[in-house]
Design a protein that fits this description.
This protein is mainly α. It is built from nine helices and no strands. The protein is globular and about 60 Å long. The termini are far apart.
Amino acid sequence: MTAKAMQNEAALVCAARLGDKEALRLLLTRNWAWLKALVYSIITNADDVDDVLQDICVRVISKINTLREPERFRPWMAVLARRQALRYRQRKSQRKVSLDEEVAGQQCDYKAGQLLEKLERKEQYQQIMQAIKSLPEKYRQVLMLAYLDDLTYGQIAEILDVPFTTVQIRLLRARRMIYNKVSRKTTNKV
């Protein structure tokens, strides 16, 4: 983020703290994509992301006045988002639905020739998603922010409040872990 954009964001934070609803809307809109990626990296269920984002918006609106340094809005919002997503994940794990019930509820109605190809792609997609979900959270967060929102390493470092090189290392390790898990499953089938 450029210095001018940071100043603009800090000015929006100050306006939002004074009750400017448009400034608050702009802050949320401009940061929505990375926020969504961050939440997904924690809860790993696309169907629940919007519920968590709604909770985060309520938190941001009610807590914007507690932000002491307006120029640190992104890291502040990232902390709020992580906490809210972790709370949601914890509540959700207490009322988990079995995978068998979920799969049984979904029926496929494909042509016979296309079914095999689609199932293979789905299986490969599921292997990759399972590998991503099994990553330690710090690696999954960097990966999701990098690929779902096309953020630069510098922007990711700012959001997660870690050094630039840490982002690079975590992304490299995340890619390796995914590759190793997916390639192991593929070679075990052959």
